[in-house]
Write a structure and sequence with these properties.
globular; PyrdxlP-dep_Trfase_small; four-stranded mixed sheet; 2 domains; transaminase activity; alpha/beta; Aminotransferase class III-fold pyridoxal phosphate-dependent enzyme; Aspartate Aminotransferase, domain 2; pyridoxal phosphate; PyrdxlP-dep_Trfase_major; seven-stranded mixed sheet; binds 4'-deoxy-4'-aminopyridoxal-5'-phosphate; 13 helices; Aspartate Aminotransferase, domain 1
Length: 416
């Protein structure tokens, strides 16, 4: 198994000068949920579907930078487009027309997009979506779906989180996913006060099996939002462009009023986009919203190259096929060692859980054994497929996962 002396030495340096060493979900206490000793902490190089940590260990990566790696790290076409643009200009006093080119491409590609507004992170777009819904309706309340994650702005955090005020979340209402009656009741109870409903296209939360929309669910949500004048916001930051290039709302057969994109938009270059319907264009235009780097041209060039290539290779079909091949193989590998592995969510963003252990420790043990043998997965968070992944990589992954199951089985011979 791999060892990580250089990663751990780097982390020791980091803790002295960076709050928590590595903050957020990439940090050892948040991201991997398993002991630091079993997990690399710093990478040094990435190419295609793989990265190498600072100790020189190689991984087939199923986290894809938590989403942005959609074509493969260092994709030649995206890099070439970015380099060409970088030689011309990047951040300038006025924007480049490449911003317009990308907006036109998104309007052409995304079914519910009549316009596009660019920013940097997913959270920039979810915050703008909430502000737009409030500006358009002059109402305050927002409906959330249980298990949501929309970024880290105070409005999207929980009351008991440090630094969050009661006022920040006072207008948040939460309903369970796939529960139309709960939505109907909430809309009636707060009639005339709800500005918007924000939801991921399916429930891809952490620590729980991911859940797909029930038949007719989204169509019923759409109807209820229309009846109550509520802006329907789809947070496609994570799933966007992995299920359907026309948007995950299109994939599930409905149309959002606002849709948030980020992760897969530019293969790792920094750009996000809020797209929406014509009737909200004046409202979004009225909002004070911008940032130092939001019109930088290089990421726009990268995004155009990314979307163009995703389209040409029909990447969503490839993700579904390889995701299914992988999860089916992993489930069989588990069964061969008398474990039950549950895969949930969409195959392009599969979520894994070992069903034999409510404490979750067995799952973490298996994940650690995979990671230490070169398959980078994580526990209690969905995974991601990228277009550089091959069937050979998938089969190699299943082999390594089988070894990991057999090691865990030897350690726990009586577990059932
Ligand atoms: N919404 C969803 C569904 C996400 O997965 C994320 C990022 N994990 C965000 C919003 C926030 O995006 P960012 O971290 O780029 O601000």
């Amino acid at each position: 198994p791999y060892e990580y002396p250089l990663s751990r030495a780097a982390f020791a340096r980091a803790t002295k000068v960076i709050p928590s060493g590595i903050y957020g979900h990439q940090g050892p206490s948040e991201g991997c949920y398993i002991p630091q000793a079993s997990f690399p902490l710093f990478s040094s190089r990435a190419e295609g579907t793989r990265f190498w940590d600072v100790d020189g260990n190689e991984y087939i990566d199923y986290m894809c930078g938590y989403g942005p790696n959609v074509l493969g790290y260092g994709d030649d076409e995206v890099h070439a487009a970015a380099r060409t643009q970088a030689e011309l200009e990047d951040v300038v006093s006025i924007p480049s027309t490449i911003m317009v080119d990308l907006a036109e491409l998104l309007v052409e590609t995304v079914a519910s997009a009549d316009w596009a507004f660019f920013a940097k992170n997913g959270g920039d777009t979810t915050t703008l979506a909430i502000m737009t819904a409030r500006a358009a309706t002059r109402r305050k309340k927002i409906v959330f779906v249980k298990g949501y994650y929309h970024g880290v702005a105070p409005w999207s955090q929980k009351l008991d989180y440090p630094g969050v005020l009661e006022e920040d979340v006072a207008n948040n209402l939460t309903i369970p996913f796939n529960d139309i009656e709960a939505l109907r009741r909430t809309l009636e109870q707060h009639a005339g006060q709800i500005a918007g409903l924000i939801a991921q296209p399916y429930m891809h939360g952490n620590f729980v099996d991911n859940a797909l929309p029930a038949e007719g669910y989204w169509q019923a949500v759409r109807r209820l939002c229309d009846e109550h004048g509520v802006v329907l916001i789809v947070d496609d930051v994570r799933a966007g462009f992995r299920l359907d290039l026309a948007g995950s709302d299109h994939y599930y057969g409905f149309s959002a009023d606002l849709i948030c994109f980020c992760k897969a938009l530019a293969n790792g270059y920094n750009v996000s986009a809020l797209c929406g319907r014509d009737f909200l264009k004046d409202a979004v235009s009225s909002i004070t919203y911008t940032g130092s780097y939001w019109m930088s041209a290089v990421p726009f060039a990268a995004a155009i190259a990314t979307i163009t290539k995703l389209h040409r290779i029909d990447a969503p079909a490839q993700f579904a096929r390889l995701g299914t091949r992988l999860t089916t193989g992993l489930i069989t590998a588990a069964r061969n060692e008398a474990f039950t592995l549950v895969s949930s969510g969409e195959p392009a963003l599969f979520y894994l859980r070992l069903a034999d252990d409510d404490s979750l420790m067995l799952h973490q043990e298996w994940v650690a054994e995979c990671v230490q043998r070169g398959v980078f997965i994580t526990s209690h968070h969905n995974h991601f497929i990228n277009a550089a992944l091959t069937e050979t990589d998938v089969d190699m992954t299943i082999d390594i996962a089988s070894q990991a199951f057999s090691i865990v089985r030897k350690r726990h011979p009586l577990w059932s």
